[in-house]
Amino acid sequence: MTFPDPKKFQLVVAGPNESGDADFLEVGPAAEFDFPGVAAGAFYWAVDGGHSKTNIGAPPSKVALAGPNGSTFGISSFPAHSSGEVDAALDESMSATDDDGDAGMHASDTIDYEVVISGKVDLVLPGGKKRTLVPGDLLVMAGVPHAWKNPYDEDCVYVVVTVGFNTPEVAS
Asked: Where would I find the Cupin type-2 domain in this sequence (predicted)?
């Protein structure tokens, strides 16, 4: 089975229109990213600051993981023979950890739900722990340091949903 380019998926959104009736909503373009040799893809939807019937989100204006109480939805890929170094890809939603001296190690304040739909990729955790993910594998990434390595001959394409950690309330 061949999947389209991660930046060419069609987003269909069903939600309340301006009158509050169920409808298919017109949406804008995705926030695309392409870091050659590292990762490529697009975030198609994002919710900022909490989910509700009146805050269902919109296409994101920038490439970023979910902020506090928010979420993002997208498609990503790791190109064949990529090393996972993330320096070029990091924004304020991720932080480099360089665990084990690996420039690809990073973490975020999100819980990520991911589904591999084609290819395969190695998920590496500190201490040399590694799992190879293949089509159909489901991953829950709970904010721990990790790196992605694709030493294989095929790009790995996967669906990703990120959910931002709740911001704790400060006692007065």
From this structure: 112-161
